[in-house]
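Justification of resources, computational component.

The compute hours requested in this renewal are based largely on the per-chain cost of generating structure records like the one below. Each record pairs the submitted sequence with a full structure-token output. That output is archived, and it is also reused by downstream analysis tasks.
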Amino acid sequence: MGGQTALDQQLLKRMAIGDSLAFAQFYDRHSPRVFAALVRWMDQRSDAEDLLQETFWRAWCRAAKYDAARSTPEVWLFVIARSLALSHLRRHRRERPFGLAHAPVTMNDPLNALECGDSTRLVRQALTKLPQAQRSVLILAFYGGLTYDQVAQVLAIPLGTAKTRIRTSLRRLRELLPELEECKTDA
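The structure output for this chain reads:
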């Protein structure tokens, strides 16, 4: 586990017991990138500002529920931000901001199995078998709906590394989930 991830996990533990200084440090570490993503996703900057506040409010309130086995703190935070952004857009009937042309999802991806009801549990179990670096890119790309570029920015890694990790992770999921082949949808 990287030093930055360990620091973020410590900050979340402190936030869970009400440490406002830990929250301020967590906010300072992550708000610039979260805000940049929200600005890209939203039509209006004022909406992005409101959603930034809501994202960190939820992080503060849910810090005790953070599970390091599921994702890094940064991925967890971006999933919160994306969820809020999509809810806001739905409420205001705006188009989804993430360009489908740039999304790394293909129709033959094992994560399409999420559409098959009982498969969700199997996919989550398989994700826990992946190394943290591979699990993080998949959570951002598929659960978070981020593009390759956005994944690279969030994780502060080169674009090529993000693409390789996603490709490697998907290959490994295919190996772990052969029984889900029948759940794939054909385009």
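The chain has eight helices and no strands. The radius of gyration is 17 Å.
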